Amino acid sequence: MLILDCPYCGIACDETELSPGGEAHLTRFGPGSSEDEFEGYLFMRENPRGVHFERWRHAHGCGKWFHAARDTMTMEVFGTYPAQTTEPPAELRKTISEKRPGWSWRDFS
C-alpha cells in the first residue's frame, strides 16, 4: 500500500485517503498556444520505470494538492512537498541521487 505524508497537515495518508492527479511539473499552455503544444499538454506524459514526480490530493483530509517523488517499481517514497513548488526541492533531488545514482528524468534547472 502506498503511504504519503501530507506536507500541509503532517498526516501519513494511505492511498485510500488520497486522489491521484497525474504527473507533476507539467508546462501548461494558455490561449494562443499551438495545437501541437496543447496536444502535448493533454496527452504526452512521462511513464518512467523508476523515479517519478506526481500530484496527489489529500481528499479525505485537508483537501490540498501536493507533489510526491516515488519509485514506480519499488513504491519507495522519497518525499512530498507543496504543490505550489515549481520544481522538486534541491534536498529531495539530492536524496534521490544518493539512493539512485545516475537517475535522470527531466532537467529542472
Description:
This protein has helices spanning 35-43, 90-99, and strands at residues 3-5, 12-14, 19-23, 51-57, 65-71, 77-82. It has 109 residues and is of the alpha+beta class. It has a 4-stranded antiparallel β-sheet with strand order 3-4-5-6, with helices on one face. A two-stranded antiparallel ribbon has the order 1-2. The protein starts with a strand and ends in a 10-residue tail after the last helix. 16% of the residues are buried. Pfam families: SoxD. It comes from Kangsaoukella pontilimi. This is Sarcosine oxidase subunit delta. GO terms for molecular function: sarcosine oxidase activity.
Keywords:
alpha+beta; Folate-binding fold; two-stranded antiparallel sheet; 4-stranded antiparallel beta sheet; 109 residues; 6 strands
